[in-house]
Here is the input.
Amino acid sequence: MFGGRKAAAYKAQHPRYPTPSAPFFSSSFLHIAASRDSLYTVLSAYTFTSSIMSATYQRLAQISKQVTPGKSGSSAILEKNPDDIVVTCALRTAITKGGKGGFKDTAAADLLVGAFKALIERSKIDPSLVEDIAVGSVLPPGGGATEFRAAALAAGFPETSAVKALNRQCSSGLQAIVDVANAIKAGVIDVGIGAGVESMSSQYGPGAVTEFSELLENHMEAANCKVPMGILSEDMAKDLKISRKDQDVFAASSYQKAIKAQEAGLFNEEIAPLTVKFVDPKTQEEKTITVNRDDGVRPGITPESLSKIRPAFAADGSIHAGNSSQISDGAAAVLLMKRSTAEKLGQKIIGKYVTASVVGVKPLLMGQGPWKAIPVALEKAGISKGDVDIYEINEAFASQALWCTKELGLPFEKVNPKGGAIAFGHPLGCTGSRQVSTLLTELKRTNKKIGVTSMCIGTGMGMAAVWVAE
Here is the structure.
């Protein structure tokens, strides 16, 4: 507690007494420390020791508060805190059939402009407050970086609103949202947008996959990354004994749920109508149309009708166009900020982002991604499978979505209650963002709270995120 020359002098004068290391005062001690210097030293030691003990007690009190049992599980994530990352607007365009639907003649950037304009109009956010925009997309040349920045400017965002494009395959739209949420949490920005877009009409096809170098081709696991997903899913179905009948039942259910939801107007709130140019394939006449419905949703689909469709990847296979996700076009956008910021700006909070997970699986088993990613996200959130009210799991193929649902032990009524990508399509970069608008809208409508979005990812990955509706 005290040392140097004064301590040495004290020890020399009073060899029987140890150097004081704790606050103990008595008349005898003061008598012994009679010299002015010794008394000064003792008093200094006492003051120093007292201050340390006081600071220690304060720190212990802080720690005790932190370790005192509090809310956990679903109760914890349902709590509202100023630093929560919240969603104040989540919307999408309609999703239309690739090559023949309402957006077949609309560029990806133009779809994005429509989604951005709708977000500004609905949220009433001052565009100048948006500091960064992340856009997930898979197919655009150059990753879409240039045209997406241009789209933001065309939609009304000022030059001060930065834009980036990113690609994590089918999870790109979700990854964009998570990137923005993390930037807000880290204090890099205060307000941002996570979005996703894809025009598979104009950019999907053989050219979407680049040729591998000799080095990659000669590495077995690396070479597996370019095996077409349909073939992977076919092999997975055979290896795991997922019957065609079960796949067709799952797919028919997706169609039936989607048509029921569409007829009841359950998608209306999340869809932003978009007016576009459309070339009539029969007359070649250019028209102006307003697209406000998912045109891939079809009535009358049953397991029996699906059973008549020829397999797509093997003569004796089980996977076909009717039990796989549709090639589609669409865009979606989500506005995020801290709860304290939303309250300051008068933004209506519709939900909050809790956490996310991203995992890797074997490239040949890419369809198992949600099965691995969802438990990781739930653990990070501190909740169990039973705490979740709705799961939005992307239906890349009925085989993988069905297998993941069964292996996770999820009640089928909690999975994709309004249908999924088999029924209304999977615009690759858009889906992860689209799921958020679909989930939060349905949680609100059904007066439920906790939801999860998830998807498998080409080349062998999975991603999931946990959300709370308000």
In short: Residues 36-67 form the longest helix (32 residues). The longest strand covers residues 328-338. Residues 173 and 432 are 4 Å apart (CA to CA).
